[in-house]
Amino acid sequence: MKKQNYDVFRSYLFKNIDYIGELEIPILHSSYLLPNRLISFSKALKTKDYNQWVHFYENDETILRVWRNPKKYLPILKKFYGVISPDFSIHRNMSLFMQIQSIFNGRVLGNYWQQNGIEVIANVRFNDSRTYKFAFEGIDKNANISIGSLGCLKKNEERKFFVAGLEEMMKTLTPKNLIVYGSAPEEIFDRYKNNTNIIQFPSQISKIYANKVI
User: Fold this and answer.
1) Where does the pLDDT of residue 4 fall: very low under 50, low under 70, confident under 90, or very high at 90 and above?
2) Which distant-in-sequence residues (6+ apart) come within 8 Å of 127 by Cβ?
3) What is the Cα gyration radius of the chain?
4) Is the pTM of this model over 0.90?
5) Which of 121, 135, 140 is nearest to 166 (CA)?
6) What is the pLDDT of residue 74?
7) H or E stretch including 54?
8) What are phi and psi of 123, to 5 degrees?
9) Closest Cα partner for 41 from 80, 69, 98?
10) Among 6, 91, 97, 189, which residue's beta carbon has the most beta carbons within 10 A?
11) Residue 121: exposed, middle, or buried by beta-carbon count in 10 A (0-12, 13-18, 19+)?
12) What CATH number labels 30-213?
């Protein structure tokens, strides 16, 4: 009986990926298309409304299953207009290696989906200045990119790091279109509107709150 080989490292994910820099961060080119609507990954698994884009601005427990079993979710994601690459967490209390790994994994999945015919917009996640070296590498300048602001603006300390990181990102990448999932306060984002088209999508939490107020 022939012994079956098991791909422990999921080598199929790393085919035809180009890397950049001494950390060898995967390069991810963003789609030229823009999302009309966004739906979270967890809700995308239950809907039949495929005329929208899937985002991964959810807790890691929810989205890590995509990394663990990419092939399982590929047929589902292919039904939608496109996806925003995964937003795995990079917290300051995580080791720098773990933060790099989060960025790396999100880029690898983005490449895998692109190679399977899915439109992908690159998500950019940054934190303190240590992350700038790898958070912006491998992303095209003057392109479409996406960020999530959920949980980054309420506390003064988190807001400080977000504002500084956003400034560095805009200076480094000069995006043509910036998709913001979550709040996009004028006092933070208005300064960039002369050079970048900012497209804001409210978070699911804010939608629920708005409905309750109404």
Assistant:
1) low
2) 90, 91, 92, 99, 135, 161, 165
3) 17
4) yes
5) 135
6) 98
7) strand 53-55
8) -85, 140
9) 80
10) 189
11) buried
12) 3.20.20
